[in-house]
Design brief:
The chain is globular, with a radius of gyration of 27 Å. The chain contains 25 helices and 30 strands. It is an alpha+beta fold and 833 residues long. The protein is 40% helix and 21% strand. The strands form 8 sheets. Strands 5-4-8-2-1-11-14-13 form an 8-stranded mixed sheet, with no helix packed on it. Strands 16, 17, 18, 19, 20 and 21 form a 6-stranded mixed sheet that branches. The mean pLDDT is 96. Helix 4 runs parallel beside helix 11 (548-563) and helix 20 (720-729) runs parallel beside helix 22 (753-762). It binds zinc ion. The site of zinc ion has 5 residues, from helix 2 and helix 3.
């Protein structure tokens, strides 16, 4: 095979086996000089070498084979395919050879490739860090390479750095030599055979936690100076996860050591570089009496997600980018499995149910997508980093696990990982391993979930279960929602007995459980449920007998049905009123979302009346929960307290709650679990001077989470001048990693969001240039809230159609469709209130 049919992929005429990378970053000048030596096998007669390279200035390639040397002409760069071609005067000898290329580059501010991050210390001195982010296709910005996941090789990294700085890479340091003149040369051991996107190196001022020996693997947490007190949870979770996954996969950790490092500027949550996992600060560093459970859960979730990748992703890697969904979905599933064991009180699987619902909210749109789709250009990969990959994909795997049985599923995973270690796979390799172990039709079943978009609405009526595609509205054009699924469905009777297991296809199935019957027993099925009138009536009075996730799923499905126009507001409200006194944030989340949506579509007079409905619904919860934690309450009760106070303090217009929130804010004594809500309720009151205090406290925040709470809460001021001021600060004052996120949040404000969106359109090109590409879709976060003005909606749609974000445009189209669904909902629900 001499050429690949996909023009974005390199030919396999020349295949790398080992890289030696030499880099000298100049942190002051934000540049770097590099040299790469690549051991290759030349497998065909070629007169040119083609590698990936982007935004680097390259010298000629020098190839040495059998003691003879070949020197190429100047590199010819191709910007479309991001390649560099080095032509030689004659055919290169076949067999092993070493290619050497010298080059220079710039430490960019886009948070991709080899980039610059900064932090300011307590003496207001700014320090610069040089760090990397290569997934999915940005190693080529740091060194010319065969930048595809299937070109696995070993990597030996050498860094020349200012002698007072730390340097880290994937493997342990093997030597550090003082070069004089304030410079040191640091070398690292060669890595295992792996993909280019997993290579990492970081240079800067850092401190390290103590090193824990985890059954032979040294584990540390690394952070900018002064943050040691925030590293304990990550270290504990890292240790737990390493042991958990070594045992679950029945394969030892594949790296030599494991460092987890917090980077002040980071576009994603974290990145699974083998042995050197990089994190956004809020995803690694947390602590103090002020940390909320949600913030701790976030650290637990991200740490175990990344460590699952050390096996699933790093040891066994997708062949090409369309397989990235499985990589991410599986790590999401694994993180929940691990955290459920790490902190049972977090009720991780219930939380996953809430996240699944966020995915189904997108998956019920005609502009959804199949979980796996053909990826031609690496650019198209960007569209895969969304809720459909992580949350829907992870939930589909959970559904499969419970359908096959946890042990059978685990054994299939073990077969898959052992069979493909140090190699690459396609999705069906996993189905084949699971099918082999389980004897079940895994490939056929999963194809209906992976290769088409959407999910079914499963109905229970007249003793039969049946399914049809679920959609929020009528398609305006083509629809990506599929037609037919093989759906694992469990049902159970509230009067006892084990759940019944079904594999539902196009033919309705008979349910034998005695009434009342819970459809989606256990709450892990990836579908919406609908009950017939009789079935619903039998169930409605006994909601307290459902499991928590069953109840949360029922409410989420009811909210979806309301939004889709399948049930009325009165029907939804009746169900919510039957929820009783469970301390379940997961269940009440859907009610709060529904209430917030309805509140948006009402005019001022009716909003005042609606606030009384809201008070009647949430008031009894507050009467029970109060402001302070009670002795013996569950770990998650504070999250419900927070949710209830947030609703009553804003939509419910509860003056005493608003006043008490202001008192706590002024005294700056906010409990971690309530802090974000208190800020929301305070901002909503729009009192003079508070905005300035928010900015002030953000700047001097003592934890990354505190900084984030103030930053996110800027969007809660119902005032255009304030919102526009905050929006302008996204283009300079705030960190680049947060700019698009804060702008998006600002557009969601009921009062000021529209003005911010209009402002954003005037600086759109600048935003697209400036913010990390992976965060750009966040700019459209407010679209689903523009549901009161058809003319404005037309303007919004037109603008976003004319300003495509390329790989992420599908996410924008989804937000546009959500806006249309919301407009239809607004029209339908307004007369019902
Ligand atoms: Zn991941």
């Amino acid at each position: 095979m001499s050429t690949s049919p996909n023009p974005y992929r390199l030919a396999r005429d020349v295949v790398p086996s080992a890289y030696r990378i030499f880099l000298t970053p100049d942190l002051e000048a934000a540049t770097f000089a590099g040299r790469v030596e690549i051991d290759v096998d030349v497998n065909a007669s070629v007169t040119a070498l083609v590698l990936n390279a982007l935004d680097v200035t390259l010298g000629a390639a020098v190839l040495v084979a059998d003691g003879a040397t070949w020197r190429s002409g100047p590199a010819v760069l191709d910007h479309t395919y991001e390649t560099a071609t080095f032509a030689f005067d004659e055919a290169l000898p076949q067999g092993p050879a070493t290619v050497t290329i010298e080059y220079t580059g710039v430490l960019n501010d886009l948070l991709v490739g080899f980039y610059r991050s900064t932090f300011t210390d307590e003496h207001d001195v700014t320090h610069t860090i040089a760090t990397t982010q290569f997934e999915h296709s940005d190693a080529r910005r740091a060194f010319p390479c065969f930048d595809e996941p299937s070109f696995k090789a070993t990597f030996q990294v050498n860094l020349t750095v200012p002698a007072h700085l730390k340097a880290y890479s994937n493997s342990p340091e093997t030597s550090r030599t003082d070069l004089g003149g304030g410079l040191a040369a640091v070398s690292f051991a060669p890595t295992m055979k792996m993909s280019t996107y997993l290579v990492a190196f970081v240079v800067g001022e850092f401190e390290e936690s103590t090193t824990i020996d985890v059954d032979g693997t040294p584990l540390r947490v690394i952070f900018p100076p002064g943050k040691a007190h925030l590293a304990a949870l990550a270290l504990e979770c890292g240790e737990f996860s390493l042991r958990f996954f070594s045992s679950y996969f029945d394969i030892p950790y594949p790296g030599d050591k494991l460092d987890m490092i917090a980077i002040p500027d980071f576009a994603f949550g974290a990145m699974e570089n083998l042995g050197l996992v990089t994190y956004r600060e809020t995803a690694l560093l947390v602590g103090g009496p002020n940390a909320s459970i949600a913030e701790q859960q976030r650290v637990g979730e991200v740490v175990s997600h990344e460590l699952a990748h050390m096996w699933f992703g790093d040891l066994v890697t997708m062949e090409w980018w369309e397989g990235i969904w499985l990589n991410e979905a599986f790590a999401t599933f694994c993180a929940a499995l691990c955290n459920d064991a790490f902190r049972p009180e977090w009720k991780t699987w219930t939380g996953v149910g809430v996240f699944r619902d966020t995915a189904l909210q997108v998956d019920g749109l005609h502009s959804t997508r199949a979980i796996e789709y053909e990826v031609v250009s690496p650019e198209e990969t960007r569209g895969m980093f969304d809720v459909l990959t992580y949350e829907k994909g992870g939930s589909v795997l959970r559904m499969l696990e419970l359908y096959l049985g946890a042990e059978v599923y685990r054994d299939g995973i073990r077969v898959y990982l052992k069979r493909h270690s140090y190699a690459n796979t396609v999705t069906t390799d996993l189905w084949d391993a699971l099918e082999e172990v389980s004897g079940q039709p895994v490939r056929d079943l999963m194809n209906t979930w992976i290769r088409q978009g959407g999910h079914p609405l499963v109905s229970l009526e007249g003793g039969l279960i049946s399914q049809q595609p679920f959609a929020y509205g009528v398609a305006r054009g083509t629809s990506a929602i599929g037609t037919s699924w093989l759906t694992p469905v469990f049902t159970r009777s509230l009067d006892g007995g084990p759940p019944s297991r079904h594999l539902l296809g196009d033919t309705p199935l008979k349910v034998v459980d005695a009434s009342p019957v819970v459809l989606n027993a256990g709450g892990w099925g990836v579908f919406r449920s609908r009950y017939g009138t009789h079935e619903m009536a039998a169930l409605a009075g006994r909601l307290d007998e459902l499991d928590e996730l069953e109840r949360a799923t029922l409410m989420a499905d009811s909210w979806a049905a309301l939004l889709a126009g399948h049930v009325t507001w009165a029907e939804f409200l009746t169900l919510a009123q039957g929820l009783g006194q469970q301390d379940e944030p997961s269940t009440w989340t859907s009610v709060a979302t529904a209430v917030s949506f309805v509140n948006r579509v009402l005019d001022e007079d009716r909003r005042a009346a609606f606030s009384r409905v809201v008070s009647d619904l949430f008031g009894p919860q507050f009467a029970r929960l109060g402001w302070r934690a009670r002795e013996g309450e569950s770990e998650l009760t504070p999250q419900l307290r927070s949710l209830v106070i947030g609703v009553l303090g804003t939509i419910g217009r509860d003056e005493s709650i608003r006043a008490h929130a202001a008192t706590l804010f002024e005294a700056n004594t906010m409990d971690g679990d309530l802090a974000r809500t208190i800020l929301r309720v305070v901002a909503d009151q729009h009192r003079p001077g508070d905005y300035e205090t928010f900015l002030e406290r953000r700047e001097h925040a003592v934890t990354p989470q505190e900084e984030q709470r103030y930053l996110w809460s800027l969007s809660d001021f119902p005032d255009e001048a304030i919102a526009l001021d905050a929006a302008a600060k996204c283009f300079g004052t705030f960190r680049n990693q947060d700019g698009a996120i804060v702008l998006g949040l600002l557009t969601t404000n009921r009062v000021s969001g529209r003005a911010v969106w209009e402002y954003l359109t005037t600086r759109w090109d600048e935003a697209v240039e400036k913010f990390p590409p992976s965060t750009l879709s966040r700019l459209a976060a407010g679209l689903p809230t523009f549901i009161t003005d058809d003319v404005f909606a037309d303007t919004v749609e037109k603008f976003h159609t004319e300003h495509s974000l390329g790989g992420e445009q599908r996410m924008i189209e989804q937000q546009v469709e959500r806006m249309r669904v919301g407009l239809a909902f607004a029209e339908a629900v307004r007369p019902q209130i």
